[in-house]
Each structure stands twice: as structure tokens, then as C-alpha cells.
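Work Package 3 (structural annotation) set out to generate three-dimensional models for the target panel prioritized at the project kickoff. During this period the team completed the workflow that converts sequence records into C-alpha cells, so that structures can be stored uniformly alongside our sequence database. As a representative example, we reproduce one entry of 218 residues exactly as it appears in the project archive.
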Amino acid sequence: MSNNKNSKDSKLHGISKYHELDLKTDASEQLNEVYSNWADSYDDDNDSKLKTVSQPNTVAMLMRHCSTKQPRIFDVGCGTGIVGQHLQANGFTNFDGTDPSLEMMEHARNRGYANLLKLIPGEPLPTADNTYDASLCVGVFTHGHLGPEGFLELIRVTKPNGLICFTVNEGVWDSEGFEAAIEQHSEADEWEVLEMTKQDYMVNEGVQAWYVAVRVLG
């Protein structure tokens, strides 16, 4: 066993339950239980044990491409609201969040969200077409969560000329066909890719992700 202090020790944090999921089956109910039980310790695990950097990196990507001074933003899969915390710290004031876990969203209530909406897996996002200037989806396109079929809903709720910024865990990028799906939406003139880079995701796990920003075409 490695003595590297940064090597993964699943007994140290709530992600151990995630590693134990049977990802060959519909994991939605399992995920709901995991996140409900993980809610109180999630932020500490995210920051101190996993050293997840996807939230600030995605907000920085949004800022590189956002031309609207006060965009209305939808944080899809907001969890405990860490993305909202970074949005708020960078001067954004008009953003909503949605997540399947009510327990996780309880922790997001003091992080600047105007509205927090219950997300039901397998159903459309809980908002109307063309509602948001920007949609963010951080940490959702990963093992056992959501595949590239989720792009359609992000496009639906985002206004023409609006931004979508999302991450894709490197472990599912090829196996679940994310690159091909991104290209298909580009070829269909549904969006234009502005940025697509591979960067650190969970530093202490040695995991990277693809960071993608697209502009919706109307």
C-alpha cells in the first residue's frame, strides 16, 4: 500500500459510500441515500480531504466567457452550494440551484441562492425553457450520475446566446461518449464550443476532469 499521504483512503471520507455503489444498476436511489447521509460532512470532505477544485475552476471559466453583468444563473446539481459560494464571492447575485438531495440543499440556503428547487432524477429540470443566461453543471457528469443525455436539458433551460459551463470526470469521458455528444450538438448548431480543457478535479484523489464552456445557438 502506498505511503503517499495524498493516496486515496476511502475510510477517511464520505466518498467511501460512493465507491461502494453498484454502478451497473440504476444508482439514483443509492445516490440519494449516500448524499443524504453525506450532507453534514460533505464540505469538509470536498475541501480538506478530496481537495476538489472544480467549483472555483468552473466559476472562473464562466467569468472568462460571460458578457452579461448580472446573468441569471442555474446551478444544476448544486449540492451544498459550494458553486454558489464561489459565485457570490465573485459578485454574482442572481442564481438558483437544483439538486435531488434536500439534505444537501439545506446547507446551500445561506450561500446566495434566490431559489432552491427539488430535482427529480429522470424528469425534466424544474424550470421553463430559455430561463437562464447561464447554466452550470459541476460534478454531475461522473460515475453513476448522469450521461451526455443531460445536455439536452441544459440547452433547453438556457437562453439563446447563453452559456453552459460543465465538468466531465475523466473516467467517463470516453466510456460514456461525452466528446462525441459534444461534437454532435455542435454539428447540429445547438451550441458552439468556447473552451474544452482537461484540468485538476479532485487533487488528493489524483483525478482530473474536462472543463467545457459552450454558447447556446438559437
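Residues 28-49 form the longest helix (22 residues).
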